[in-house]
Amino acid sequence: MDDFELPLEDRAQAAELLAAKLSGLRGKHPLILAIPRGAVPIGRILADRLQGELDVVLVRKIPSAIDPELAVGAVDEIGNRTLAPYFDRTRTSMEWVEMQTKEQLALMARRRASYGQARPPAAIAGRIVVIVDDGLATGSTMAAALRSVRARQPARLIAAVPVAAPDSLEAIAPLADEIIALATPMNFTSVSRLYRSFPQVEEDEVLRLLRTG
Fold first, then answer.
1. Are 180 and 161 in contact (CB under 8 A)?
2. Any residues with CB less than 8 A from the CB of 150 and at least 6 apart, and which?
3. Which residue of 30, 111, 127, 155 has the fewest C-beta atoms within 10 A of its own C-beta?
4. What does R_g of the chain's alpha carbons equal in angstroms?
5. What is the pLDDT of residues 111-159, one digit of tens each?
6. Where exactly are the structural domains of the chain?
7. Which listed CATH number (3.30.230.10, 3.30.300.130, 3.40.50.2020, 3.40.50.450) goes with 11-211?
């Protein structure tokens, strides 16, 4: 399963490759926490292959006022916020950050209510936990997820991503017990360009995948 070339075919291929890297967790009932929405299809496959449990960890990026694709930070669902090291107050004001934080918290509250219809939140304390995303660009969202989950005392905390920018991977390394990344291209530009097929994952698919298994 190690033989692959970029771009990856799709999220399913990425998930199978990650499952091979994490095969040592099979039989240990790991908790797979996917960052919605894009990572949930990957998380479903990981949970199935590793005989684990799937849930979500709710974190949202705080977009730049200049470029909405660029994250200047991230916030978790209880309001803990992390700003990126490169955050520039001359280009994105704190007023903008506060406004976006409130919007993202409201969105996460709606999603938690919706996802709760599929299953109650999984217990984290004392478990092996794998946080998965479909790629790591700035690393802000994964950093927020790792900090949020670490506070809930997992036995071991692993970050798993198919593709990552090298500097972002280095930045999150102190926050996890182990990091799994399939590829860290030096010419990283965006996550989507490292997949041939990278469709948007819709809410109904997330709910379906959470109910499966």
1. yes
2. 157, 175
3. 155
4. 16
5. 999 998 777 789 999 999 999 999 999 898 999 999 999 999 999 999 9
6. 11-211
7. 3.40.50.2020
